[in-house]
Design a protein that fits this description.
Blueprint: E1 8-9, E2 31-32, E3 50-58, E4 64-71, E5 77-84, E6 92-93, E7 113-121, E8 126-135, E9 138-146, E10 153-159, E11 163-168, E12 177-185, E13 188-189, E14 191-196, E15 203-209, E16 222-224, E17 229-231, E18 234-245, E19 248-258, E20 265-270, H1 280-283, E21 291-298, E22 304-311, E23 315-322, H2 323-333, E24 334-335, H3 338-341
Parallel strand pairs: 1-20
Antiparallel strand pairs: 2-23, 3-4, 4-5, 5-6, 7-8, 8-9, 9-10, 11-12, 12-13, 12-14, 14-15, 16-18, 17-18, 18-19, 19-20, 20-24, 21-22, 22-23
Bound molecules: beta-D-mannopyranose (BMA).
Residues 53, 114-115, 251, 287, 290, 292, 310, 313 line the site of beta-D-mannopyranose.
Length: 342
Protein backbone atom coordinates (compact mmCIF):
# COMPACT_ATOMS: atom_id res chain seq x y z
CA UNK A 1 0.00 0.00 0.00
CA UNK A 2 1.40 3.38 -0.86
CA UNK A 3 1.15 6.19 1.65
CA UNK A 4 2.07 9.81 1.45
CA UNK A 5 4.30 9.36 4.48
CA UNK A 6 6.44 6.55 3.22
CA UNK A 7 7.77 5.96 -0.28
CA UNK A 8 6.94 2.62 -1.77
CA UNK A 9 9.94 0.41 -2.26
CA UNK A 10 9.13 -2.84 -3.94
CA UNK A 11 12.41 -4.45 -4.87
CA UNK A 12 12.12 -7.06 -7.54
CA UNK A 13 14.96 -8.99 -5.97
CA UNK A 14 15.43 -10.27 -2.46
CA UNK A 15 17.51 -8.00 -0.18
CA UNK A 16 21.23 -8.68 -0.40
CA UNK A 17 23.84 -8.94 2.27
CA UNK A 18 24.93 -5.49 3.49
CA UNK A 19 27.65 -4.14 1.24
CA UNK A 20 30.99 -2.90 2.44
CA UNK A 21 32.76 0.27 1.42
CA UNK A 22 35.37 -1.74 -0.57
CA UNK A 23 32.55 -2.74 -2.92
CA UNK A 24 32.27 0.81 -4.21
CA UNK A 25 34.94 1.55 -6.71
CA UNK A 26 35.14 4.76 -8.71
CA UNK A 27 33.46 3.80 -11.94
CA UNK A 28 33.46 6.61 -14.51
CA UNK A 29 29.80 6.57 -15.55
CA UNK A 30 29.97 10.06 -17.02
CA UNK A 31 32.89 11.47 -19.04
CA UNK A 32 33.54 15.20 -19.07
CA UNK A 33 33.78 16.85 -22.49
CA UNK A 34 37.27 18.19 -23.24
CA UNK A 35 35.76 21.54 -24.33
CA UNK A 36 34.32 22.19 -20.83
CA UNK A 37 33.11 24.62 -19.76
CA UNK A 38 31.03 24.88 -22.93
CA UNK A 39 29.26 28.14 -22.05
CA UNK A 40 30.14 30.95 -19.69
CA UNK A 41 29.43 34.60 -19.24
CA UNK A 42 32.15 35.64 -21.67
CA UNK A 43 30.08 34.25 -24.58
CA UNK A 44 27.01 36.25 -23.57
CA UNK A 45 25.72 39.01 -25.87
CA UNK A 46 24.73 41.23 -22.91
CA UNK A 47 26.27 41.81 -19.45
CA UNK A 48 25.55 39.01 -16.96
CA UNK A 49 27.09 37.49 -13.85
CA UNK A 50 26.77 33.78 -14.66
CA UNK A 51 25.06 31.13 -16.79
CA UNK A 52 24.24 27.72 -15.31
CA UNK A 53 21.58 25.02 -14.62
CA UNK A 54 20.20 24.91 -18.19
CA UNK A 55 17.42 22.68 -19.52
CA UNK A 56 18.32 20.86 -22.76
CA UNK A 57 16.36 19.64 -25.79
CA UNK A 58 17.16 18.46 -29.28
CA UNK A 59 15.00 20.44 -31.74
CA UNK A 60 13.42 19.09 -34.94
CA UNK A 61 16.06 20.87 -37.03
CA UNK A 62 18.82 18.96 -35.20
CA UNK A 63 19.97 21.90 -33.09
CA UNK A 64 20.54 21.47 -29.38
CA UNK A 65 18.76 24.17 -27.38
CA UNK A 66 19.87 24.99 -23.88
CA UNK A 67 17.39 27.06 -21.90
CA UNK A 68 19.89 28.58 -19.53
CA UNK A 69 19.45 30.11 -16.13
CA UNK A 70 21.19 33.46 -16.45
CA UNK A 71 21.94 35.49 -13.35
CA UNK A 72 22.17 39.20 -13.98
CA UNK A 73 24.41 41.63 -12.17
CA UNK A 74 21.71 42.35 -9.58
CA UNK A 75 21.71 38.65 -8.58
CA UNK A 76 18.27 37.94 -10.17
CA UNK A 77 17.81 35.19 -12.75
CA UNK A 78 15.97 34.91 -16.07
CA UNK A 79 15.97 32.24 -18.80
CA UNK A 80 17.81 32.57 -22.10
CA UNK A 81 18.03 30.12 -25.02
CA UNK A 82 21.35 29.17 -26.64
CA UNK A 83 21.28 27.03 -29.81
CA UNK A 84 24.10 24.99 -31.37
CA UNK A 85 24.37 22.58 -34.29
CA UNK A 86 26.67 20.14 -32.45
CA UNK A 87 25.61 20.81 -28.85
CA UNK A 88 29.18 21.73 -27.89
CA UNK A 89 30.17 25.03 -29.49
CA UNK A 90 29.05 27.68 -31.96
CA UNK A 91 26.23 28.74 -29.60
CA UNK A 92 23.75 31.32 -30.91
CA UNK A 93 22.34 33.12 -27.91
CA UNK A 94 19.02 34.99 -27.80
CA UNK A 95 19.28 38.72 -27.34
CA UNK A 96 17.05 40.08 -25.90
CA UNK A 97 16.63 37.23 -23.39
CA UNK A 98 14.05 34.51 -24.09
CA UNK A 99 11.92 34.47 -20.92
CA UNK A 100 12.04 37.21 -18.32
CA UNK A 101 10.34 37.23 -14.92
CA UNK A 102 6.98 39.00 -15.17
CA UNK A 103 6.23 40.02 -11.57
CA UNK A 104 3.44 42.40 -12.61
CA UNK A 105 1.27 39.46 -13.72
CA UNK A 106 3.10 36.75 -11.79
CA UNK A 107 4.19 38.22 -8.42
CA UNK A 108 5.76 34.87 -7.50
CA UNK A 109 8.54 35.78 -9.98
CA UNK A 110 9.59 39.01 -8.27
CA UNK A 111 13.08 37.71 -7.40
CA UNK A 112 13.57 35.90 -10.68
CA UNK A 113 13.04 32.57 -12.43
CA UNK A 114 15.55 29.72 -12.16
CA UNK A 115 16.55 26.13 -12.94
CA UNK A 116 14.19 25.12 -15.80
CA UNK A 117 13.50 21.51 -16.83
CA UNK A 118 12.03 21.04 -20.31
CA UNK A 119 9.99 18.02 -21.38
CA UNK A 120 8.65 17.51 -24.89
CA UNK A 121 5.04 16.30 -24.68
CA UNK A 122 4.08 14.49 -27.91
CA UNK A 123 0.34 14.51 -27.09
CA UNK A 124 0.35 18.31 -26.89
CA UNK A 125 3.10 18.83 -29.46
CA UNK A 126 4.58 21.35 -27.05
CA UNK A 127 7.46 21.69 -24.66
CA UNK A 128 6.59 21.96 -20.97
CA UNK A 129 8.96 24.16 -18.97
CA UNK A 130 8.86 23.63 -15.21
CA UNK A 131 10.92 26.30 -13.47
CA UNK A 132 11.52 27.83 -10.07
CA UNK A 133 9.79 31.14 -9.43
CA UNK A 134 11.34 33.01 -6.54
CA UNK A 135 9.57 35.49 -4.27
CA UNK A 136 9.01 36.47 -0.65
CA UNK A 137 7.29 33.16 0.02
CA UNK A 138 10.43 31.31 -1.12
CA UNK A 139 10.92 29.19 -4.25
CA UNK A 140 7.84 27.66 -5.92
CA UNK A 141 7.25 25.70 -9.13
CA UNK A 142 5.85 27.48 -12.20
CA UNK A 143 4.90 26.02 -15.57
CA UNK A 144 5.00 27.47 -19.09
CA UNK A 145 4.24 25.78 -22.40
CA UNK A 146 5.84 26.60 -25.75
CA UNK A 147 6.04 25.28 -29.28
CA UNK A 148 9.03 27.32 -30.42
CA UNK A 149 10.84 28.92 -27.42
CA UNK A 150 9.68 32.28 -28.78
CA UNK A 151 6.15 32.56 -27.42
CA UNK A 152 5.06 31.04 -24.13
CA UNK A 153 1.79 30.27 -22.41
CA UNK A 154 2.36 30.83 -18.71
CA UNK A 155 0.37 28.76 -16.23
CA UNK A 156 1.77 30.63 -13.22
CA UNK A 157 2.73 28.92 -9.99
CA UNK A 158 1.49 25.31 -9.84
CA UNK A 159 3.23 24.13 -6.65
CA UNK A 160 3.37 26.70 -3.88
CA UNK A 161 6.56 27.48 -1.89
CA UNK A 162 8.65 25.92 -0.69
CA UNK A 163 9.04 23.69 -3.72
CA UNK A 164 11.47 23.34 -6.67
CA UNK A 165 13.39 20.81 -8.84
CA UNK A 166 10.32 19.92 -10.92
CA UNK A 167 9.82 18.23 -14.29
CA UNK A 168 6.79 16.91 -16.13
CA UNK A 169 6.76 13.31 -17.38
CA UNK A 170 6.32 13.28 -21.18
CA UNK A 171 3.11 11.25 -21.16
CA UNK A 172 0.08 10.65 -18.99
CA UNK A 173 0.19 7.91 -16.37
CA UNK A 174 -3.21 6.26 -15.89
CA UNK A 175 -4.84 9.17 -17.73
CA UNK A 176 -3.20 11.88 -15.59
CA UNK A 177 -0.19 14.14 -16.10
CA UNK A 178 2.60 13.48 -13.60
CA UNK A 179 5.04 16.01 -12.14
CA UNK A 180 8.10 15.24 -10.03
CA UNK A 181 9.02 18.00 -7.57
CA UNK A 182 10.79 18.66 -4.28
CA UNK A 183 8.72 20.37 -1.62
CA UNK A 184 10.33 21.11 1.72
CA UNK A 185 7.98 19.92 4.44
CA UNK A 186 8.26 18.98 8.08
CA UNK A 187 9.14 15.52 6.72
CA UNK A 188 12.29 16.93 5.07
CA UNK A 189 13.46 17.69 1.52
CA UNK A 190 12.39 14.61 -0.45
CA UNK A 191 11.26 13.98 -4.04
CA UNK A 192 7.50 13.77 -4.55
CA UNK A 193 5.26 13.02 -7.51
CA UNK A 194 1.85 14.61 -8.09
CA UNK A 195 -0.87 14.08 -10.68
CA UNK A 196 -3.17 16.37 -12.65
CA UNK A 197 -5.97 16.06 -15.20
CA UNK A 198 -5.21 19.45 -16.81
CA UNK A 199 -1.66 20.57 -15.80
CA UNK A 200 -3.25 23.22 -13.53
CA UNK A 201 -4.78 21.33 -10.61
CA UNK A 202 -2.50 18.89 -8.83
CA UNK A 203 -3.19 16.11 -6.31
CA UNK A 204 -2.52 12.45 -5.59
CA UNK A 205 0.72 13.52 -3.91
CA UNK A 206 3.19 10.75 -3.10
CA UNK A 207 6.77 10.68 -1.86
CA UNK A 208 8.81 8.90 -4.52
CA UNK A 209 12.33 9.09 -3.11
CA UNK A 210 13.47 10.07 0.37
CA UNK A 211 16.70 11.76 1.29
CA UNK A 212 18.71 9.30 3.36
CA UNK A 213 19.96 10.24 6.79
CA UNK A 214 23.14 10.31 8.81
CA UNK A 215 26.43 10.06 6.98
CA UNK A 216 25.10 9.25 3.50
CA UNK A 217 26.14 11.45 0.54
CA UNK A 218 22.44 12.14 -0.13
CA UNK A 219 21.38 12.71 3.47
CA UNK A 220 18.69 15.26 4.32
CA UNK A 221 18.22 16.96 0.93
CA UNK A 222 17.75 15.55 -2.55
CA UNK A 223 16.07 16.78 -5.75
CA UNK A 224 15.43 15.76 -9.34
CA UNK A 225 18.15 16.67 -11.86
CA UNK A 226 17.13 16.37 -15.52
CA UNK A 227 13.71 15.01 -16.61
CA UNK A 228 13.36 11.21 -16.24
CA UNK A 229 14.42 9.01 -19.16
CA UNK A 230 11.88 6.35 -20.17
CA UNK A 231 13.52 2.95 -20.67
CA UNK A 232 12.07 -0.55 -21.07
CA UNK A 233 13.06 -1.26 -17.44
CA UNK A 234 11.54 1.88 -15.94
CA UNK A 235 12.02 5.63 -15.56
CA UNK A 236 15.72 6.29 -15.16
CA UNK A 237 16.12 9.26 -12.83
CA UNK A 238 19.21 11.28 -12.03
CA UNK A 239 18.94 13.18 -8.77
CA UNK A 240 21.19 15.42 -6.73
CA UNK A 241 22.14 14.81 -3.14
CA UNK A 242 23.44 17.59 -0.94
CA UNK A 243 26.09 16.87 1.64
CA UNK A 244 26.41 19.62 4.26
CA UNK A 245 29.98 20.07 5.42
CA UNK A 246 31.78 22.55 7.64
CA UNK A 247 32.94 24.42 4.53
CA UNK A 248 29.64 24.40 2.62
CA UNK A 249 27.51 22.01 0.59
CA UNK A 250 28.66 19.39 -1.94
CA UNK A 251 26.15 18.70 -4.75
CA UNK A 252 26.61 15.24 -6.30
CA UNK A 253 24.51 13.03 -8.59
CA UNK A 254 22.85 9.71 -7.94
CA UNK A 255 20.68 7.42 -10.05
CA UNK A 256 17.49 5.47 -9.38
CA UNK A 257 14.94 3.51 -11.39
CA UNK A 258 11.16 3.84 -10.99
CA UNK A 259 8.22 1.76 -12.15
CA UNK A 260 6.95 2.76 -15.60
CA UNK A 261 3.25 2.82 -14.77
CA UNK A 262 3.52 3.59 -11.03
CA UNK A 263 6.44 6.01 -10.94
CA UNK A 264 6.19 6.52 -7.18
CA UNK A 265 7.55 2.99 -6.82
CA UNK A 266 11.33 2.95 -6.63
CA UNK A 267 12.73 -0.27 -8.12
CA UNK A 268 16.43 0.41 -7.66
CA UNK A 269 18.51 3.14 -6.05
CA UNK A 270 22.26 3.42 -6.41
CA UNK A 271 24.16 3.42 -3.16
CA UNK A 272 27.09 5.65 -4.09
CA UNK A 273 27.05 8.89 -6.02
CA UNK A 274 27.94 8.59 -9.70
CA UNK A 275 29.26 12.07 -10.47
CA UNK A 276 30.57 14.85 -8.28
CA UNK A 277 32.52 18.10 -8.42
CA UNK A 278 36.18 17.41 -9.30
CA UNK A 279 37.19 19.62 -12.25
CA UNK A 280 38.44 23.13 -11.46
CA UNK A 281 35.35 24.78 -13.02
CA UNK A 282 33.15 22.63 -10.73
CA UNK A 283 35.16 23.32 -7.59
CA UNK A 284 35.49 27.06 -7.84
CA UNK A 285 33.05 29.71 -8.94
CA UNK A 286 30.20 31.55 -7.25
CA UNK A 287 29.28 28.35 -5.39
CA UNK A 288 32.16 25.86 -5.58
CA UNK A 289 31.51 22.14 -5.16
CA UNK A 290 28.33 22.03 -7.27
CA UNK A 291 27.39 19.95 -10.31
CA UNK A 292 23.73 20.58 -11.16
CA UNK A 293 22.22 19.08 -14.35
CA UNK A 294 18.76 20.25 -15.42
CA UNK A 295 18.74 18.63 -18.87
CA UNK A 296 20.07 15.99 -21.22
CA UNK A 297 19.69 14.98 -24.85
CA UNK A 298 19.87 11.40 -26.12
CA UNK A 299 21.88 10.68 -29.27
CA UNK A 300 20.44 8.92 -32.34
CA UNK A 301 21.87 5.60 -31.05
CA UNK A 302 19.14 5.73 -28.35
CA UNK A 303 21.79 5.14 -25.67
CA UNK A 304 24.26 8.00 -25.36
CA UNK A 305 23.23 10.63 -22.81
CA UNK A 306 24.60 14.12 -23.20
CA UNK A 307 24.20 15.52 -19.74
CA UNK A 308 24.28 19.31 -19.53
CA UNK A 309 25.07 20.63 -16.08
CA UNK A 310 25.69 23.85 -14.25
CA UNK A 311 29.12 23.93 -12.63
CA UNK A 312 29.78 25.92 -9.45
CA UNK A 313 26.70 28.11 -10.21
CA UNK A 314 28.91 29.88 -12.77
CA UNK A 315 29.08 28.08 -16.15
CA UNK A 316 27.68 25.23 -18.24
CA UNK A 317 29.47 21.94 -18.82
CA UNK A 318 28.78 18.67 -20.65
CA UNK A 319 29.41 15.02 -19.78
CA UNK A 320 28.43 11.90 -21.69
CA UNK A 321 27.15 8.59 -20.35
CA UNK A 322 25.20 5.53 -21.49
CA UNK A 323 21.67 4.47 -20.55
CA UNK A 324 22.62 0.80 -20.88
CA UNK A 325 25.65 1.21 -18.63
CA UNK A 326 23.67 3.09 -15.98
CA UNK A 327 21.02 0.36 -15.95
CA UNK A 328 23.55 -2.42 -15.58
CA UNK A 329 25.45 -0.43 -12.94
CA UNK A 330 22.19 -0.18 -10.98
CA UNK A 331 21.78 -3.95 -11.18
CA UNK A 332 25.14 -4.31 -9.43
CA UNK A 333 25.20 -1.31 -7.14
CA UNK A 334 21.75 -0.62 -5.78
CA UNK A 335 20.49 -1.45 -2.35
CA UNK A 336 17.09 -2.73 -1.48
CA UNK A 337 15.16 -2.24 1.74
CA UNK A 338 16.42 1.35 1.82
CA UNK A 339 14.54 2.35 4.92
CA UNK A 340 16.68 0.03 6.98
CA UNK A 341 19.97 1.48 5.75
CA UNK A 342 19.09 5.17 5.92
C1 LIG B 1 20.11 24.90 -5.14
C2 LIG B 1 19.52 25.68 -6.29
C3 LIG B 1 20.42 25.64 -7.51
C4 LIG B 1 21.88 25.89 -7.16
C5 LIG B 1 22.30 25.05 -5.97
C6 LIG B 1 23.73 25.30 -5.52
O1 LIG B 1 19.36 25.10 -3.98
O2 LIG B 1 19.32 27.00 -5.90
O3 LIG B 1 20.01 26.63 -8.40
O4 LIG B 1 22.68 25.54 -8.27
O5 LIG B 1 21.43 25.31 -4.89
O6 LIG B 1 23.91 26.64 -5.13
Amino acid sequence: MSSILAPVLEPERAPREPRTSETYSEVPLFTRHPANPILSRKEWPYPINSVFNAAAVRLDDGDTLLLCRVEDRRGLSHLCAARSGNGVDGWRIDSPPTLMPNPREYPEEIWGIEDPRVTYVPELQQYAIAYTSFSRGGPGVSLAMTKDFKTFERYGVIMQPEDKDAALLPRRIGGLWAMIHRPVTTLGAHMWISYSPDLRHWGGHRIMLEARRGGWWDANKIGLCSPPIETAKGWLVLYHGVRQTASGSIYRLGVALFDLEKPEICRQRGDSWIFGPEAPYECSGDVGGVVFPCGQTIDADGDTIRLYYGAADSCMALATGSIRTLLSWLDENSSTGLQSVS
